[in-house]
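P.,

For your records, the input lines for the assembly:
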Amino acid sequence: QLQLQESGPGLVKPSETLSLACTASGASISSSSYYWGWIRQPPGKGLEWIGSIYYLGSTYYNSSLKSRVTISIDTSKNEFSLKLNSVTAADTAMYYCARIQYCSITGCSETYSYYYMDVWGKGTAVTVSS
Amino acid sequence: EIVLTQFPGTLSLSPGERATLSCRASQSVSSSYLAWYQQKPGQGPRLLIFRASTRATGIPDRFSGSGSGTDFTLTISRLEPEDFAVYYCQQYGSSPLFGGGTKVEIK
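C-alpha cells returned:
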C-alpha cells in the first residue's frame, strides 16, 4: 500500500528557497497511471494546490506561484521534490504531497474520466521567519 | 477563473443528524472532476468522494455525493462522532482548485 512522507527543513528564512521532498514507499512513482502533487495549507486556512508532475517529468503549476516553483521527480529514489524560491511569511504553511489519479475527458470519455487526490502524506510544517 | 464556494461555513449538528454540505462553482464544471475530502485536526485530507458521487475505497455508505453543473452536495446521512471535521470540495478545470471548506461541529 502506497505511503507518502514529506521531509525538509521546518524553518526557512525570508528570501531563501524552501526545499521539500516526498518519498513514496509501497509502490513505484514510475507508474504511468498517476500524477504527483504538492498542496499547502496556511495555518487556519484552506487548501491550495501548488503544482503537479508526471513520472516522465511534465510539470503543471499554480499560476499564482509559477514564477517561484519548481517540481522535479527522481524515479531512482522513488521521490519527487518541491522548490519554492524567494519565500515570505505568506509561504508559512503545512505542505502536503499527494498522489493524483487523472484521466481526461478526451482520453477516457466523459463516462470514465476523473481527477482526484487519493493518497496524501501527513504533511510537514514550514515556517518562514528570520 | 472558476471559484468554488462552500456553504455553510460551519454546520452545528448532533450525532445521528443528517448533514448537507454545498459546493457551488462560479461556472459549470464537469462532475467527472469533482471530489470531496475530509480533514480532521492535525491530519492530512482524506478522499471521500470522486466523480461527484463515487465513494472512495473504505468510505462508509452514510457519505454520498450528488450534483452537476454548478451545484454539488455532500450528504452525511447520520453523523457519527468521527465525522465531525472540515470538508472540502475540489474541482479540476484548467488546474485543481479547492473550496474554502465547511466545518461540521458538534452542537
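Two observations worth noting. Chain B touches chain A at residues 30, 32-33, 35, 37, 43-47, 50-51, 56, 88, 90, 92, 95-101 (CB under 8 Å). The CA atoms of residues 55 and 102 of chain B lie 19 Å apart.

Regards
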